[in-house]
Amino acid sequence: MNKKTFTQAADALKALPPRKFKQTFEFIINLRDLDLKKPEHQVEQWVQLPSGKGIPVKIGALVGPELAEQAKAACDTVIVHDDFSTFANDKKAIKKLAATHDYFIAQANLMADVAKTFGRYFGPRGKMPNPKAGCVVPPNANLKVLAEKLRKTVKATAKMQPSVKVVVGTQDTPSDQVADNMLAVYSSVIPKLPGETANIRSVLLKLSMSPPVKILADSIVAPKAAATEPPAEKKPSKKKSDGGAQ
Question: In terms of domains, do 68 and 144 share one?
Answer without folding.
Answer: yes
